[in-house]
Amino acid sequence: MRAAIFVEPNGPMSVEDVTPTDPGPRDVVVRITASGVCHSDLHVISGALPMPPPAILGHEGAGIVEAVGAEVKGLAVGDRVIGSFIPACGVCWHCLRDESHLCDNTYTVMGSPRAVRADGTPLMTMTGLGTFAEYMTCDEMSLVKIETDVPDAQLALVGCGVTTGVGAALNTAKVQPGDTVAVIGCGGVGQSVIQGARIAGASVIIAVDPVALKREAALGLGATHAVDPGEGDPVEQVKALTGGRGVDYAFEVIGLPATVAQAFDMARSGGAAVAVGVSHFTESITVPSFPLVLSEKRLLGCVYGSAQVRRDFPRLVGFVENGRLDLANMITRTLPLDDINEAFRAMTAGEVVRSVIV
Ligand code: COD
Ligand code: ZN
Ligand code: ZN
User: Fold this and answer.
1) CATH assignment of the domain containing 201
2) Are residues 195 and 148 in the same domain?
3) 59 labelled catalytic
4) Which residue range forms the structural domain that includes residue 281?
5) In testing the pocket of ligand 1, which one of 40, 46, 100 has its CB within 8 Å of the most ligand atoms?
6) What is the mean pLDDT for each group of 10 consecutive residues in the chain (358 residues)?
7) Active site residue 89
8) Parallel, antiparallel, or unpaired: how do β-strands 247-252 and 204-208 relate?
9) What is the tally of structural domains in the chain?
10) Atom of ligand 1 nearest to the CA of 160
11) Cα 298 to the center of its chain, rounded Å
């Protein structure tokens, strides 16, 4: 099968013929029908998220089950599935508390090579998935069955960006009707936060992004205001739009300590900053002590939108089916697997909200 391989830090990916390893009894073989290109894949290539090459990247994908191992109970050949980039065992302490994003058994299924290069080198896969390929072999824990007519490219986005972003608003922050929200960084994940805030009934949703295309997309997907940080301090611009008070929730959706600090400063007294982006693994986030305590501001971490994927994937797909969640307008372009490096170039250049490999 063809797969895009991360071969060297900051280098282009190499699209090659590789040989899948034999599936185990709990494994499922999925024919990938669509795979979104998320900035976290680029974080691996740049070294911000540590993962040694060579590896098959891609963690935002949908597909069709081609084969199942003898011990697979919940899936059958022909099922439509979305990959969960955090595997969800369903029975551990966290999974039993609807916190599959913190599943205790996550790493048990991420450590197996899933293919071999022509020279015999084993290939690991990003988060146990590896969706930048024609097929992926993964544990049953990493898949959620979906019955829907939503197109493949849109379904793929649910695997990461949409669940992360909408979940940040609905699950992590628990935005309430009438709340005020700012979103710093309006890529695929940030636009999903904006849509989540709209679905929750936020009264003010301020999109902050230096790229005009992203600000325009945000206004089309539910933002009520757009702020260009190039036109002056974004904290002051957000405060000016909220009567000088700041917002109930400020989401950082880039992964930079400086913008996490902006989010903290944008939150009102008693409000919260929500860190969705992960800064380089060597960095720390610092917040000023007085506002943390005396203004009771909170700083919340958010991984995978605090999602219970077996509950939330079908819920999000239902929002799409009923016109509440607009994924069609988040997909700027679709490309073949051979053009994967062009998708990363376009992301870096700020030309797309989301590219999808089909
Ligand atoms: N102020 C405002 N916006 C900015 C600034 C700034 N100073 N700098 C860049 N931006 C904007 C860009 O113009 C762009 O629109 C946006 O920030 C980033 O968008 P994308 O499309 O490049 O990134 P996403 O949406 O695909 O990913 C964002 C994440 C936060 C998920 C990602 O970067 C990240 O932190 N990944 C690591 C965390 C992780 O592993 N998450 C789980 C898997 S995704
Ligand atoms: Zn992602
Ligand atoms: Zn679990």
Assistant:
1) 3.40.50.720
2) no
3) yes
4) 161-304
5) 40
6) 97 97 96 97 92 96 98 97 96 95 90 94 96 97 98 98 98 98 98 98 98 98 98 98 98 97 98 96 93 97 98 98 98 98 97 97
7) no
8) unpaired
9) 2
10) 44
11) 23
